[in-house]
Amino acid sequence: MNKLILSVIITQLLIQTYSYAQETSHSNKPKDHIKAKIGIRLQDKNGLRKAKAIDKISVGDKLSIYVKPWKDSYVYIINLNKTNATLLNSNSDAQIIKKGVEKVFMGEGSGYSPDGLSSKDALIVIVSPNQNNKIMKLFSSGPIPSNKWHKNEEEIMLGN
Question: What is the pTM of this model?
Answer without folding.
Answer: 0.76
